[in-house]
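Researcher: Structure prediction, please.
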Amino acid sequence: RWLFDQAVCTLYAFCGVLFGLCSLASLTVLSAVCCLKVCYPAYGKYWDVHAAVLLLCVWVYALTFATAPLAEWGSYGPEPYGTACCITWETSSRQATLYILALFIFCYLLPCLLIVASYSLILWTVWVSRRAVQQH
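Model: Predicted structure follows.
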């Protein structure tokens, strides 16, 4: 069972969601920057200057979704086994369902699709370049 009170549970869940979303958002930005640098070198050189802005955007993005349950859009609570805390997945309220749907779309589906698209474009560019070199 969860050994601490609800405040510690909320803090624990908030930190887990914040750092998890920050990690996935960082990987998404990294894949997009790599894609620009490899596939579009003329535009890729500008991203070095904006690294701090990109990091700030990652943290704001993660904080937005992690603080939403604190503003009562979704909620944090004990996991089903009660040993840890996370987002309350089994709530039946409309707001909680919309929060979980927004998390799925904006914090899982879109980042994963962007990562797959970025690395696919990189592989395609490398394959086309390799064929061009072999023909010469």
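Model: Strands lie at 76-78, 85-87.
Researcher: Thanks, that helps.
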